[in-house]
Amino acid sequence: MRVSVIGCGYLGAVHAASMAQLGHEVVGIDVDAAKTDLLASGTAPFYEPGLPEALAAARATGRLAFTTDPAAAAGSRVHFLCVGTPQQHGEFRADLTYVEDAFAALLPHLAPGDLVVGKSTVPVGTAEALAQRLTTTGATLVWNPEFLREGFAVQDTLHPDRLVYGLPTDAEGEPTADGARAAAVLDEVYAQPLADGTPLVVCDYATAQLVKVAANSFLATKISFINAMAELCESTGADVTRLADAIGYDDRIGRRFLNAGLGFGGGCLPKDIRAFMARAGELGVDQALSFLREVDAINMRRRVRMVDLAREVCGGSIVGLRIAVLGAAFKPDSDDIRDSPALSVAAQMQLQGAHVTVTDPQALPNARAAWPGLAYADTAEEAAADADVVLLATEWPEYRRLDPAALGTVVAHRRVLDGRNVLDPRAWRAAGWTYRALGRP
Ligand code: NAD
User: For domain 2-198, which architecture applies?
Assistant: First the structure.
């Protein structure tokens, strides 16, 4: 099937390459010519494991092209909307400008029977409004939220853990005739994952839009729950990692996403829970989500607490001290620095008078561009040279594996802050380091 993918960022570029791998003929469209040029030459414009290979495989089939021309969407049966929906400046609400612009650019190129398939994360009500504007085109809107995780994006797109189709529905909540036709077309698009047994949830627009923000709210809540427990552990001398192990054995709770530390960041969770709160307010049900305000506050407090911990471990002040920050990406296996806890803490420490040097295996170009005032080094050893404190802020495998004895030979003082609770305190203490972590004695 011929499909267009509009917006070729972390979501869209992977989606375009994956759709071509699934056998479709794909055109990726983005307003950023630098990005489409790179993608057209087979180069991933950002770090995502498996994406270069996926692009190469798709290009070899001759079924994948990229352009900045919205007219290239004409002739596609399905048009995936994958543009960004960031937080509005100075507000919690989502900025829907990119969705609006992409949709307006697509409208003149739609033919009767086409599907416009929304994958961006949007406030509930957005799909209904867009669908209204399709009535004169004969095209149908479907909301098909995306759940990929950066770092596993290709795998998650080819083998999703579920698919959700938000369809136009009648008064009884059943898909309309257009909705049923749209579902049949999407079944063809996703024939392979469906044949592999991927669960499919068919629902109305509102449910489909809510599924995505509900899922992210749950994940954010789980992380902030364990970080709230970490605060209790800090004031009682308890160990949050043991606590998480013990409660995680209950399979109603589960151990995943119960890692206390610097909390969540990135281009999704923080802005999604804020946009969800803003939308609930508009709908007059803000009380239903007031707990998310606390989830957000707990998360942000961890960053402040980490700066305090640095001060504590250095005898009360970090002014003039050298601090090495290992990690700039918001999580390992990504170069995405949007709302990165690592960079947020690094910048705070710098503002409070420390000399901060940041390193990261993949995210240095993005970090340098966003935070030019920080110092950067290519490796952990270079960042840690003469450091008074080393902070592990993003749990890249190479930082988890660092040899405390070897790193101890380059630093000025053996003090380590484990911002992700991934180092072995006994090994680091045995090598002469002062080891401190959030939520642990
Ligand atoms: P991104 O910023 O990496 O990519 C968005 C892309 O859209 C950019 O390349 C931008 O140039 C392009 N764009 C903007 N306006 C356009 C227009 N008018 N026409 C064509 N292209 C345009 O963002 P992302 O991380 O890919 O996220 C996209 C959406 O997917 C967001 O709603 C996000 O919440 C959601 N999402 C993201 C992830 C993730 O892990 N990144 C996962 C699930 C859902």
Answer: 3-Layer(aba) Sandwich (3.40)
